């Protein structure tokens, strides 16, 4: 089994964990294929031997990789998605962060998790992405977001106005610090802290959530994901920021941004006991009240 391994940073307390990972994979005759920069860290910090295969581009996922394992928080998972893209390779998230809505397991359960992967005791949950296009092709071929696109002001300057159109029909002009457009997966990310709704992952929708809207009666909107969305930001500054998940670019004021649902989905590894609502309850500590005991 060829397994792509990606993480961004090894903390001191994680050294033993990473040693265990590669020992268990060796025992199972799995073939780890390690992201190039992460491999350099592994050799330096845990003394990982030479000879492992590496990857450094999404083109390495076209064939020959059976599963990708993301070890870290949600930011690490999102970066892993940028490698996997439309290859169909499923992603298993192992959470080492503080919250981790995207990961389905953690370091303490790793041995059991790998055993279940070996026995194929898991399912895939499909997650949609947003495809973003601009006239100047600002993001090149990295124009996908699993969580959201954010249009927001560049610094502490005055707010911007974001015009939004759905299928060519005018929706609203948002006077705000910015606007988020995202997928159901992104509903538990930035949008959640802006008062956006929590959306079940399989719902075929996109959300529009304003960031610190000037008009208090402006609320998040949910729309079918087959409707294309067009945005145009206007402000006093010459530029604003456009962010796909955690990847940001400065954009000229007045630039039109076209958003559509991507024509493929990401396969996320899920275990039967970790349902969406169970994850929400645990991560957000719903029901943590003595009256419920």
Automatic annotation (TrEMBL):
GO cellular component: cytoplasm
Principal location listed in the UniProt entry: cytoplasm
Binding site for NAD(+): 74-75, 79, 147-148, 177, 188-193, 212
InterPro entries named among the record's database cross-references: ATP-NAD_kinase_N, ATP-NAD_kinase_PpnK-typ_C, NAD/diacylglycerol_kinase_sf, NADK
Top-level EC class: transferase
Catalytic reaction equation(s): NAD(+) + ATP = ADP + NADP(+) + H(+)
Enzyme active site: 74
Cell compartments where the protein resides: Cytoplasm
Reported cofactor(s): a divalent metal cation
Molecular functions per Gene Ontology: ATP binding; metal ion binding; NAD binding; NAD+ kinase activity
Record's keyword terms, sorted: ATP-binding, Cytoplasm, Kinase, NAD, NADP, Nucleotide-binding, Transferase
Any one Gene Ontology BP term: NADP+ biosynthetic process
Assigned EC number: 2.7.1.23
Family: Belongs to the NAD kinase family.
Task of the protein: Involved in the regulation of the intracellular balance of NAD and NADP, and is a key enzyme in the biosynthesis of NADP. Catalyzes specifically the phosphorylation on 2'-hydroxyl of the adenosine moiety of NAD to yield NADP.
HAMAP family: NAD_kinase
Protein name (record): NAD kinase
């Amino acid at each position: 089994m060829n397994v792509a391994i990606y993480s961004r940073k090894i903390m001191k307390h994680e050294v033993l964990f990473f040693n265990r990972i590669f020992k268990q994979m060796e025992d199972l005759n799995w073939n780890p294929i390690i992201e190039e920069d992460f491999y350099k860290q592994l050799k330096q910090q845990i003394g990982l031997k030479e000879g492992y295969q590496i990857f450094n581009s999404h083109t390495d996922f076209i064939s020959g990789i059976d599963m990708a394992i993301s070890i870290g928080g949600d930011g690490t998972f999102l970066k892993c998605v940028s490698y996997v893209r439309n290859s169909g390779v499923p992603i298993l998230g192992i959470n080492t962060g503080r919250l981790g809505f995207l990961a389905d397991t953690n370091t303490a359960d790793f041995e059991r998790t790998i055993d279940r992967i070996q026995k194929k005791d898991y399912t895939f949950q499909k997650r949609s992405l947003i495809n973003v296009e601009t006239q100047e092709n600002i993001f090149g071929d990295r124009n996908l977001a699993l969580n959201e696109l954010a249009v927001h002001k560049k610094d502490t300057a005055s707010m911007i106005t974001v015009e939004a159109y759905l299928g060519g029909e005018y929706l609203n002009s948002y006077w705000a610090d910015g606007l988020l457009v995202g997928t159901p997966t992104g509903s538990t990310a930035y949008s959640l802290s802006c008062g956006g709704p929590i959306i079940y992952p399989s719902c075929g929708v996109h959300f529009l959530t304003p960031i610190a809207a000037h008009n208090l009666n402006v609320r998040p909107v949910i729309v079918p994901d087959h409707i294309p969305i067009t945005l145009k930001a206007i402000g006093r500054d010459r530029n604003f920021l456009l962010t796909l998940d955690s990847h940001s670019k400065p954009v000229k004021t007045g630039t039109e941004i076209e958003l559509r649902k991507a024509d493929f989905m990401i396969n996320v590894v899920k275990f039967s006991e970790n349902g969406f609502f169970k994850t929400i309850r645990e991560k957000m500590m719903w029901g943590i009240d003595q009256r419920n005991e």
